[in-house]
Protein: Non-heme iron oxygenase ferredoxin subunit
Amino acid sequence: MSPLIDICPLDELPPGARRTIEHDDLDITVVNVGGTLYAIEDRCSHDDGPLGDGPIDAAACTIECPRHGSLFDLRTGVPKTLPAYQPVETFPVTVSGGIVRIDVD
Ligand code: FES
Structure:
């Protein structure tokens, strides 16, 4: 089975937009930061906060956990500030035929 998961047409995910999907037992948020797409686990490694809902700093390429404020690097899932200290998962994003897909392999 293909590990590629369809998210949505690229037109529906313009810069500044985000979309969260469920795959198996994972929630994954895909965000468009100034035209670059990132996919990150929608669950903070500190206390399961809804990471995908957090504010994004485009210049730093981080997303902030809305629960206790840890900053995570959108590219790697590595936390840059406490209280989280374990990384969350990130997933490669591709666009093919105008469809945004993530690789969950
Ligand atoms: S749940 Fe995210 S920092 Fe605590």
